[in-house]
């Protein structure tokens, strides 16, 4: 925590003297209440020993259905699976607005270079019928922040197990200092395959992903699609298919998660490969994640028995009443699928 406070203080000192005349949206947010603001039922279904399952009415990707016993080195254990609340993400209109840290504005709201390192998107003017120009409203621009926040470890609920992430709270990513966040050419360095999916045929395939994500999980084979919310590529802050703030921030959350996987800083934890630990997955499996809104509205009131959803699900099914004027800074709890071999006999915990 001291490292986090030091980082925030450094950001404030670095950018508080950066003078710009333009005004920015007010920074809004809150410190999440881990009792009342978290969709705890999203941790389900839970499976034990390859057979026993507690669904609690929740969705699962069935990433592993193995034997009663498993091994990791010399350790013998039983396989378990669940959805671990391990990350929090901000998706904000106001640069440096740390929504999940109580709405803390880290500095003046500007960045080192607004056109290289992020900032507000320039106004996009389109011709009007009378020869003038009007603002195009279908674009929006967002900054993103990624917090390492494994709730079970932070709350010290369970100890001595390899099946829960044990890292402490930390700020792992800030788009304001990421040169790929507002530059497609830079973004191509980590996503050279993105040029393959800018055509009509590839985008038309996202219709199938939209249908799949709205009734279950998205299709991993169509990894360039974020279901009904838009294209994953380019993984930048501009949303060119803006329908609403909930839709746009959901798309940016998917892009952020994929970008961190592609960069190798976010690892997978499900399937048989995840039984003994985390592993890199450069093409993210979208069905390994579910998410739930924390701010501006806590998504704890259930719809159809659920208060979280997979990436790509249409926000028409769950996003109404969650877009509040004047509070355009969003935060989400991210649940990652965890398959693990819980040691019964051996040196591991």
Explained architecture:
This protein is of the alpha+beta class and 349 residues long. It has a domain at 85-270 and 292-337. The chain is built from 6 helices and 15 strands. Strands 1, 2, 3, 4, 10, 11, 13, 14 and 15 form a 9-stranded antiparallel sheet that branches. Strands 5-6 form a two-stranded antiparallel sheet.
Task: Encode the helix/strand succession as letters.
Answer: HEEEEEEEEEEHEHHHEHEEE
Q: What oligomerization state is this entry in?
A: single chain
Give the biggest beta sheet.
Answer: 9 strands, antiparallel
Strand content: 15-25%
Q: What Rg is obtained from the alpha carbons, in whole angstroms?
A: 21 Å
Percent helix range = 10-25%
Cα(first) to Cα(last) distance is: 25 Å
State the low-pLDDT regions, or none.
1-23, 112-124
Helix count, DSSP H or I runs of 4 or more residues: 6
The overall strand count is 15
Mean pLDDT: 86
**Strand pairing plus helix content: what structural class?**
alpha+beta
The shape is globular
């Amino acid at each position: 925590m001291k490292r986090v406070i030091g980082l925030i203080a450094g950001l404030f000192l670095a950018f508080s003297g950066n003078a710009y005349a333009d005004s920015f949206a007010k920074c809004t947010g809150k410190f999440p209440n881990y009792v009342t603001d978290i969709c705890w039922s999203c941790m389900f279904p839970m499976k034990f020993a390859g057979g026993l399952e507690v669904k609690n009415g929740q969705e699962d990707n069935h990433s592993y259905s193995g034997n009663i016993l498993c091994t990791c080195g010399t350790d013998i254990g039983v396989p378990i699976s669940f959805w671990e609340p391990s990350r929090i993400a901000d998706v904000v209109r106001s640069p440096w607005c740390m929504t999940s840290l109580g709405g803390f504005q880290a500095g003046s709201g500007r960045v080192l270079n607004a056109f290289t390192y992020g900032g507000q998107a320039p106004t996009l003017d389109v011709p009007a019928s009378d020869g003038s120009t009007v603002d195009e409203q279908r674009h929006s621009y967002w900054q993103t922040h990624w917090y390492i926040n494994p709730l079970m470890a932070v709350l010290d609920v369970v100890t001595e197990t390899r099946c829960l992430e044990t890292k402490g709270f930390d700020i792992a990513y800030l788009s304001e200092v990421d040169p790929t966040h507002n530059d497609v050419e830079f973004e191509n360095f980590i996503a050279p395959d993105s040029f393959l999916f800018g055509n009509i045929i590839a985008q038309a395939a996202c219709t199938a992903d939209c249908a799949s994500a709205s009734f279950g999980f998205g299709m991993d084979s169509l990894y360039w699609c974020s279901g009904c919310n838009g294209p994953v590529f380019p993984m930048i802050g501009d949303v060119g298919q803006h329908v609403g703030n909930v839709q746009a921030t959901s798309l940016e959350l998917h892009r952020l998660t994929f970008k961190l996987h592609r960069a190798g800083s976010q690892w997978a934890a499900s399937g048989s490969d995840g039984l003994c630990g985390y592993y890199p997955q450069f093409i993210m499996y979208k069905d390994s994640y579910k998410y739930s809104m924390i701010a501006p509205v806590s998504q704890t009131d259930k719809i159809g028995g659920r208060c979280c959803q997979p990436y790509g699900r249409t926000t028409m099914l769950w996003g109404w009443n969650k877009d509040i004027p004047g509070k355009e800074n969003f935060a989400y709890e991210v649940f990652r699928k965890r398959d693990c071999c819980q040691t019964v006999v051996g040196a591991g915990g």
